[in-house]
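Researcher: Go.
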Amino acid sequence: MTQTKAVATGLRETSRPARRDWTADGGLLWVAVVAGVYTVVQLVFVVPGSGLGWDETVYTSQVSRAASDTAFFSAPRARGITFLIAPVTSLTSSVDVLRVYLALLSGAGLFLALHVWRRLLPASVLALAGALFAGLWITVYYGPQVMPNLWVALGCLAAVGLFLRAARDRTDRAALIGLGVAVAFVALMRPTDAFWLTAPLALIALSVRRWRRWALLAALAVGGAVGCAEWIIEAYVSYGGLFPRLARASEIQGHLGWNLVFGDHMRSLDGRLLCRPCDVRWRRPATAIWWFALPLLTLGGVLVAARLRRLPLVLVPTLVGLSMAAQYLLLIGYAAPRFLLPVYALLALPTALFLTWIVRTAKPRPLVVALLVAAAVAHLWVQGSVVADRAERSRSDRVTFDRIAAEFARQGVTPPCVVSGTEAIRVAFRVGCASRQTGGHDGSITPAELVATGRERPVAFVVAGQAGPPAYARGWRVERIPDLPGLRNCRVYLSPSVHAEHGA
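Model: Structure:
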């Protein structure tokens, strides 16, 4: 109870006007510059020649004109990102066009999310916060990716800013409406993330007497309900209800529960897109130095805001950021660096405030500035090396799947066809087939049904390494194919109908 009162006290702010406009340190030109540079970096270093990842293929196949069938859409997934890309995928099957579209959109999204804060924090702080967030390899790499996490981050950043504006100014109806829209956007992208966003905001609104407004709580509730509506409807249509879908989602994610995965997230920062399990060698410890510094910089920003009597403007995003981090650091038993993008976006604000304060107050100022610039250059160098490595791997993967598609066509596996086994989703999407699995989380067909399908149209079962085919495919023709990313000794077992097609 004492802690609740302390937080509430810290969040209260005086209604007396400030002696000078704290945000009057120039326009938002530098914010626009940061967003523009962020977009250009994506277009130059990530977009060219990159291929679709496994999760991206699942999302893209739902709305792509190039897909002969949609990939299996598991319980935890939400369709927000598919709605975002649908205007492009309905017109063209070009991955390059899709990447350019998302790069431009993410740059605009970063600017808009920071622009929301223009009445709350100085433009210099916003520009630096944007640069800190955009300078992470994760942010750069996932800008043009068909993944929801960056969009959740931008939605959370905008939602918290709009919440503060609506709470501080009861006449700011645009902020109140915008808050509902931002929460709905986050919920559409990832419903569970919307819970960890709205729960602390609702508690804060209830804890601070001046902010205790039904309209504020209604905006959070209505926005969350509207954004989650499609996911909930789909739960009743495909899973028998909301709670069965949540249970299935938990099962697929390894059964949600108490899991301390701080170390896994730290190790994943060296360029691993998924650490499950994270029992791999930590190759580049330098990639996590900023991760250790982030809590200290955030605390510094909170203390500076308290000293400047602007504590709510920094404490609220900090608390929401900690809430967003809780589920991924404490409840899920594996790590992916993209999970914490909303946390990094929110904590960039107190970090930027603290660094700006240091530059303006520390002495000797030239030495302090020189040290900070040197640290920033080193940080960006490390982040750039990781994103360059990831982009190169993506380009290599695209070449590999192009070669596999050519080999499949040579062997007679052409649409309408079905691919099963290792990397079935990416192979099938590239070849123009449907992907089907007979077991696991993506199980969507029985072995008997797959065998029956193989008599009518081409079916390919892909295996790698020492693995062998399932019993029903042992009599099928086997051919070598180019090795899949990270796998060796790849083969494909072809159903009898492929013999007929190939012979013809």
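Model: Confidence is low (pLDDT under 50) at residues 6-20, 500-504.
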